[in-house]
Specification:
The structure holds two protein chains of two kinds.
Chain A: H1 3-13, H2 25-65, H3 69-83
Chain B: H1 3-13, H2 17-35, H3 42-59, H4 69-87, H5 89-92, H6 112-125, H7 130-141, H8 146-153, H9 157-178
Helix pairs in contact in B: 1-2, 2-3, 2-4, 3-4, 7-8, 7-9, 8-9
Classes of the chains: A mainly alpha, B mainly alpha.
């Protein structure tokens, strides 16, 4: 008997090889919902970061355009104080 | 394609998640039977079946209804199972000696002889690298044609034939080493 016949013989002997019953319906829907919530959170975080970056760039641009480097330094300092 | 599947796919794509629940309920037994080839552990089985349906949900918009949904799910299941084997390769290498099985500890409802044969088959194939194990399972355990095996594995037909040749050689060496079969 060659290796393929051995394998087929074992496979035939193993039939029927039924798995234990499973019910994953709720678990699948929960995982999908969790994944979508994570996706929404990432989108929100990205949007918030982009908005914050846009505000900073806008402030920098306004100060540089007005030639007020000192005022911009004051703004940065006050931001650092708020964050601390 | 089955009309109920078609309706539930359309509803799912329109945002009705409960419709996807109905698809899962209809196909989970068939997917569980397929994933039972990839693990003999009930907890892992449930996780793998879940993985298949989560992956299918994420790809559902790309499903072309040219074949029954079950065929498409079956291909996803094969790839999920193959990835599982690759992750578990190290553990598979520590499998029990071929002669040492004392039967499964789960509550599968088959008669003892069939379950023992299934455990033996699973343990034998677990000694091979995942790629060899997959091609032997598809061709000789599930009895798929080369074309179908290629479709399930996502390989070319040539790749299936070459891989099957190599896998048979390794299996032969394994059987000889275990003293289970004469060459």
């Amino acid at each position: 008997m060659n290796e393929v016949e051995t394998l087929r013989k074992l496979a035939a002997a193993a039939r029927p090889d039924r798995p234990p019953p499973v019910d994953v319906t709720r678990a699948v829907l929960d995982r999908i919902a969790a994944r979508e919530r994570r996706g929404e959170w990432v989108v929100w975080l990205f949007a918030a970061t982009a908005a914050a970056a846009a505000v900073v760039v806008s402030v920098v641009a306004q100060h540089v355009a007005a030639g007020r480097q000192d005022a911009f330094a004051d703004f940065l300092e006050s931001m650092m104080t708020v964050m601390a | 394609m089955d009309a109920a599947d078609r309706a539930d796919i359309d509803a799912t794509l329109a945002g009705d998640r409960e419709a996807y629940g109905r698809l899962v309920a209809r196909h989970q037994d068939a997917i569980a039977r397929r994933m039972w080839r990839f693990t003999r552990d009930r907890r892992q089985l449930e996780e793998l079946v879940e993985d298949v349906f989560v992956e299918a949900y994420l790809s559902l918009s790309g499903f072309r209804a040219e074949a029954p949904l079950g065929h498409w799910l079956s291909r996803i299941a094969t790839r999920v199972g193959y990835r599982f084997w690759k992750r578990r390769r190290r553990e598979a290498a520590r499998a029990l000696p071929l002669q040492d099985w004392d039967g499964p500890a789960d509550d599968a409802g088959d008669d003892l002889e069939a379950r023992e044969a299934a455990e033996r088959l699973h343990g034998l194939l677990a000694r091979l690298p995942p790629r060899d194990r997959l091609v032997l399972t598809l061709l000789y355990v599930e009895g798929l044609s080369v074309a179908d095996a290629a479709e399930h594995a996502g390989w070319s037909r040539t790749m299936v034939k070459v891989q099957a040749h190599r896998a048979r050689k390794k299996l032969r060496a394994l059987l000889e080493k275990a003293g289970l079969d004469a060459p």
